[in-house]
Amino acid sequence: MKTQCEEIEKLIGAFLDQELSQFEAERVQSHMQGCPVCSKEKEELEHLHGSLKGLFEARASGLAFEPFWREVHRRISEQKPWYVDLWDGFRLNFHSPRLTWTIPVVIAVLLAVLSLEQFVPGWGLMPHRNNVAAVESIDSHGLNVAVLRESKTKTTVIWLFQSQEGEDESSEEPSSSDNTF
Amino acid sequence: MSIRAAVELSDWELVQRCQAGEIEAFQELVARYHHKVFVVILGILNHREDAQEVAQETFFRAYKKIRGFRGGSAFYTWLYRIAVNLSIDFQRRQKRNPMEFRESLDDVAERQEESGRDPFQNLQDKEIGKRLLAAIKELTPDHRAVIVMRAVEGLSYKDISRILGCSEGTVMSRLHYARKKLQEKLGPFL
Question: Chain B closest CA to A37's CA: distance in Å?
């Protein structure tokens, strides 16, 4: 179980930043009045804040406006090719943290589109293969004939012959003795 | 009448003039914000020349995009967002060690003395400054960004969350974490 000091300690920074609600701020204030540890924490944070401000301001000092503006103006006056702008925009919007979720999402979408045909015929990107017959069975019945049952309503009968004479389309059904199939 | 002479034009009025093609209005916006933007970028990149380069690129990008700015947020929030994105992008592209501090505290002191100001007037002593620099060096760019925007610019959690594209709770926890880390490193000097 967290002690009250641990809870308050997490709020002291936000208290100094004046980002707490009135209720929370009063709670922190009243705790610090009776708690030397949290009161010291507040003083340290105040000191840290002042030091940070001083340090950053010192490091950033001495930036002259005129040369700064001249360089900005030069860039504005200079026209960049459209593809440079496009690449810059891409690079800025698709940097690595975003790509970590973008790539799996793109792969998932591609897989979904490619498998759409399975669920909604005619909607997928895969070519529609209407002309491919699915042969359910081939039955010779002891004759030179193959029966292709493509569906319940469509059956194709293929006559098979060994001799040239037998290839005449108008010929009669082969005799049962010609059992070469 | 120059823009400089036009006293107290709001950012939004200057933006509207920029959108109408007035480069002087943009110059005034650069004059208002170049130092603030520079401080934030310097806080993230930790290198003065790189920070200046990225700050100039920030204003160039802002000028190019300004026609699309509709005033849905404050101009500086929009500008800082460009600056932070560019800084992170710059750091990613730089193959050199992004955590490397190439500016010593002595360099800072020297520049302050040249400008005639009391070096580290807000630091208790040089030792704190050195330790603070070393501690900041170990923070991530995200943590440095929140620290500099809060400590130097005094931006609200709401503004920082808009700039960084995260929640106010995330800003609060990043600040808490960064402060704890700095406190640990500074130890008895606080």
Answer: 14
